[in-house]
Amino acid sequence: MRDAAHSRTVCEVLREINDIHQGDTQIDISTRAMLREAVDMAKRMDRRLKEYNQEWDKDWWENNPNVNDDIERRMAVDYLAMDDDTIPEAIRRIPSMGGREIGRYLREWAARAQKGQAIVELGSWLGAGTAQLALGVAQSKRGVVVHAFDRFKANQSEIQKAATHGIVVKAGDSTVDLVRGLITPSLAEHVAFHQGEIMKAKWNGQPIAVYVDDACKREKEFLHALRTFGPSFIPNETVIVLMDFWYFERYPEDRGLRFQHDWMKKNINHFEHTQGRMPGTSATVFRYLRGKPWAEVK
Ligand SMILES: C[S@@+](CC[C@H](N)C(=O)[O-])C[C@H]1O[C@@H](n2cnc3c(N)ncnc32)[C@H](O)[C@@H]1O
Questions:
Q1: For the CA of 212, the nearest atom of ligand 1
Q2: DSSP 8-state secondary structure symbol assigned to residue 226
Q3: Does the CB atom of residue 99 touch ligand 1 within 6 A?
Q4: Residue-wise pLDDT tens digits, 46-73
Q5: What is the CA(73)–ligand 1 centre distance, in A?
Q6: Phi and psi of 274, rounded to 5°?
Q7: Ligand 1 pocket residue status of 12, Cβ below 6 Å
Q8: Can you tell me the distance from the alpha carbon of 209 to that of 189, in angstroms, rounded to the nearest whole number?
Q9: What percent of the chain has a predicted confidence (pLDDT) above 90?
Q10: What pLDDT score was predicted for residue 82?
């Protein structure tokens, strides 16, 4: 939403609603995610209408006298991490549930990974975050591989979300080739796709520089993943991004969704909480310090 139109179009009004919801609560974040979806839909509708009549909206919109102020304000407060202008258009177009919004950070952390280290992403969906991580390792040229773990089979709600971006996915179909294509073949070279249940995932023990969990909201999966990958965390180094850390605010009555949050707080002597909330998302960031808190639980 880092944009402003000279006229008060549908998209412009949606951006104005977005401006009102610039807070950090899950309600604000959820509203803004839906507004982004609505803007994407409006743009698709506009493109389709223009195929029939290039001037369909001529004389439709009232003037927006504040266009320059709007751009400046939105650039300052909205999606500071989503510095889209610096990345390829194809990557910008990948539907995102958060990876694109924190793209700048993912790229920076991935670019810092050293030779011999690896990056692990749990929950790739259509590859929005995977692509950002791959851009980072491509930039560093140290041969670091991004390991993306996912079923790579979209469920019904993910299919619907993809459809709002014009991407057709059928239930049960493997999405590995689709994701390879979306993130572009040259970036896909930096990615190892691990298709399957995270509960069955295996890890080869390579040190992990960046660990992004966007799949394991609840206790069983979250701790299982930590037991699988945690022993390869690098003391005082590994960046841990928990994409759904604040998601429970949206459903406060669902105690199970608080698990990550409560467990990390209980075990905070093993981690440093480096970023409370990533802008415009439910994500938070820790640095691994020491110990094996995951091994003590059970
Ligand atoms: C929220 S989406 C990931 C969004 C993505 N990181 C982005 O930024 O756009 C969660 C993904 O995790 C995958 N997932 C969730 N639980 C899983 C499990 N137990 N095993 C494998 N994949 C899982 C889903 O298939 C889905 O693709």
A1: 6
A2: H
A3: yes
A4: 989 999 999 999 888 989 888 888 877 7
A5: 33
A6: -90, -30
A7: no
A8: 19
A9: 53
A10: 58
Question: Which domains does the chain possess?
Answer: 10-78 (no CATH), 89-296 (3.40.50.150)
Beta bridge mates, 208:
118, 233
pLDDT tier for residue 120 given thresholds of 50, 70 and 90? very high
Residue carrying the six token digits 């179009």: 9
Tell how far the Cα of 7 is from the centroid of ligand 1, in angstroms.
Answer: 38
pLDDT greater at residue 62 or residue 213: 213
* Residue 96 Cβ < 6 Å to ligand 1: yes
Straight-line distance from the first to the last Cα atom of the chain, in angstroms, rounded to the nearest whole number: 44
**Minimal-distance CA residue to ligand 1 atom 27:** 125
Distance, in Å, from the CA atom of 106 to the CA atom of 109, rounded to the nearest integer, reads 5
The identity of residue 143, as a single letter, is G
Q: Which atom of ligand 1 is nearest to the CA of 153?
A: 25
Ligand 1 atom closest to 98 (CA): 8
Cα 225 from chain centroid (whole Å)? 19
Residue 132 structure tokens? 């950002």
For residues 276 and 284, is the Cβ–Cβ distance under 8 A?
yes
